[in-house]
Amino acid sequence: MEEFGGEPGMSKHVRAVVLAAGKGTRMNSVRPKVLHELCGRPMLWFVLRALHEAGVDDVTVVTNSDVAPHVEAIARSAGHAASRAVLQEPQLGTGHAVQIALANLEPREGTLLVLNGDMPLIEVELVRSAMARAGNALALVTARMPLPSSFGRIVRRGEHVQKIVEARDADEDELLIDEMNAGLYAYDESKLRSAIAELRNENSQGEYYLTDTIGNFRERSETIVPVVAGNYRSVLGVNDRVELAAASALLRARICEHYMREGVTLVDPQSTYLEPGLDIAADVTILPNTAIGRGSSIGAHSEIGPNTRLQNARVGEHVTICDSVVVDSAIGDLAIVGPFAHVRGGAEIGTNVRVGNFVEIKASTLAPGVKASHLAYVGDTTVGDRTNIGAGTITANFNGKRKNRTTIGKDVSVGSNTTFVAPVTIGDGALTGAGAVVIRDVAAGERVVGNPAKSLRKETS
What we know:
By secondary structure, the chain is an alpha/beta fold. 18% of the residues lie in helices and 32% in strands. The longest helix is centred in the middle third of the chain and has 21 residues, at 241-261. It starts with 13 loop residues before the first strand and ends with a helix. 47% of the residues are buried.
């Protein structure tokens, strides 16, 4: 599946304009439509990613002042080394948007792709198909869609496209046409520049429609080549939250299918939530109601879930994580995490570590063989090999002004309900008694008990 791997080669003679200036009022949101997310990415990301995968990295995004500050970051995340955003204010239609884009581009020979920014299901192969048919005045992508539909109708005469009629301007007969304008165009740029200058806004909306360039081309006897999409769902736009949810479900199914074909077992794909760009090895098993977010990688033979969330998590091989949350952290080979554990804040969990029920690990390093099996908080701490953290242990890392670190050595036995008041260092082989409150360093091999904790030898001498 192209959008999840493979480095494209840049297409030297193709550039693109993405139309993303609409306010999306039907979303009923202060967030602009193209910034609403599906599978962890703004819908605009998927359009820019498809262009990048197709080899088109010279992209202009026509947008509004709310979206423009985000374009560079979204484009970079989608793989583009650079981005260009131009404002369309006021919004006077798709034709007006392309006029603005062209005014900001130096004229050149070649193909100009134009597509909508609210098409998150766009497939790379469809973009490539449009590019492959370029060379005429226009290669126009169409799709057969269920009726009724708000998409513009394709009016043909035989195999030739005569015009596109917007749904709001269509008559009764035209509304029965099931071939729709998909919102993806591959123009000869020079011919587009000539036609775009002659657009008029003589329609019910008083807008300049990009689709009116077709009439101009027909008058000049230019060739308009239809490119029929194999699956109409790949060109579905998103206009409200119902359509957003439907597109999310389709996209999630597509992503899950990709990973399953790569050798990953998804016990229930419908309750598995994966984002693009994950690194999941073959023979990983993902159990129901599990979400795995960007930046995450999972080694072979690991089992994740059920009821688990990973975000920017690096998980080794033969790891088990169940009913837990791992964020911005690394889990070593053979580790067991959960149920009901929370690992976060840059934590590093070593090989064969056990992080058990209701344990939180934050900004800490647990060396190989460490066990923290029950009801503990380990924050800003370094723990040495094979140390056992008893139930109820707390590293009190905040003194009211700043965070402080705790260092616990190798082979330490930490008794239940021990509190370490940081900063404090515990030597190798030390032991704390149940309920100890450790406010000073403990030497290697020393046994301490009480509140405040004192050496056991001193207590019994």
